[in-house]
# Entry
Amino acid sequence: MSSVAAQRADRLRDLSEVEFDNTFVRELPADPVRNSIPRRVAKASFTHVHPTAVSAPKLLAWSEALAAELGLSRPSPEALEALAGNRVFAGMQPYAARYGGHQFGVWAGQLGDGRAITLGEMIALDGSRQELQLKGAGLTPYSRSADGRAVLRSSLREFLCSEAMHSLGVPTTRALSLVATGEQVIRDMFYDGNPEPEPGAVVCRVAPSFLRFGNFQIHAATEETEELKLLVDYILRTHYPGRTPKEWFHEVCRRTGALIADWMRLGFVHGVMNTDNMSALGLTIDYGPYGWLEGYDPSWTPNTTDADGRRYCYGNQPQIGLWNLARFAESLLPLLPKEELEAGLEVYGTTYSATFRRALAAKLGLAELDDVLVNELFELMAAVETDFTLFFRGLAQVSEANLAGPLLPAFYAEPDAAHRTRLEAWLRAWLAKVSGPAEERAKRMNAVNPKYVPRNYLAQLAIDAMAQGDASVLERLMKVLARPYDEQPGQDDLAERRPEWARSKPGCSALSCSS
Ligand code: AMP
Ligand code: MG
# Structure
């Protein structure tokens, strides 16, 4: 798509010149009340709201890749105002969506866009419909007791990882811009009773739709069957044309299975897989305290808020996907027979298993997965702290003549003689299974085992620099992460295992939900 976009560079226009076509607000029931006072809303899928202006907007980062797909040029001063929430162009109809959700396994009632405000829907150069949504744009009726704002650190993390995920080949919401507000936001980052002012920011997120399981759940939970039906009709018409409700639910299950298989193959941990953070389009959505497996450990979670229960740890993600889909299915019971919903959950399971197995085989350069080999590998990786990304990347370089050598950069602790012997035995067994010329195999493996992932400590270095007014660290990271599977001379320092200083530094490994 980007090469097509490049050819159409002459068609790039400023955000101020874009025409909007807002199906969501046109076709779904609106809250008749138009103020942004936090409250319960009934019988509506959204509320018309207005972003709250900020004092000194400054563009910190811009995704050239996404802008090219949307046909947008770098923002004019007027466009920047819109991206900060200070201006609403003709044709935009800003709204906050109403949704609910199960948070950490418990129904939480009405949540909704508490700080996200969609500006409108535009048509990208490839003809696809794309919503532009500001995150951190001020109070809405769904803000509950919070402030409607976002801090720079979490906004930069969302901006960086959205675009990196896309380049890794994983379905995701995108991020167009990162704008500093010039205002401070008060956050208790460690939840230890010491709130501090931090710089605020607004991210412009982009996706065909930000609908979540929770948008459907809230109608079901409040027995709004008519509104539920309207919402299902809407998503079918707009985002799943030609599908029956049953086919649609099965497709959501299929996409969710494939999505979580992608997360697992890459070592991505979402961190807060509540049902309000699960996309009805099968996209990765709501980047909060996410992380990337460094030392392989199925019980690892980057989210300190979840450190006790570890509900959303790496190894639990596949089963949480199923649990979330089951709650989604329950909300559709007024519209679909139970058997058809249950059959959808089966689709999730079979899709996840088949996709993950295929991905693992590809990571290992095998035509078919060998369970004994894989089980022993994961035992090995857990026995001595081994970097997930570096191990798989290094594997392509392993040969009879150089067995463990290419894998040494992956170890956080020096493996002892016994571990090395066991690893070498595994490597010999693996070499006996692979076939074909080594060079071709390495190429195939490198195409699925990324060299670069947005490790938390790298994001934190970009945040620290940005807080000092230096955007270059983020810019470099964005550029390298746009080609995560390629060797990039001179950039190897971004593909190293997490340095020891970062192990327990806040933001560099684990994070709280505070954002
Ligand atoms: P999250 O866990 O970030 O997905 O957020 C859960 C809910 O809290 C959603 O309804 C968010 O809109 C809301 N929320 C989180 N942070 C804020 C904030 N600073 N202001 C208003 N609402 C928020
Ligand atoms: Mg959320």
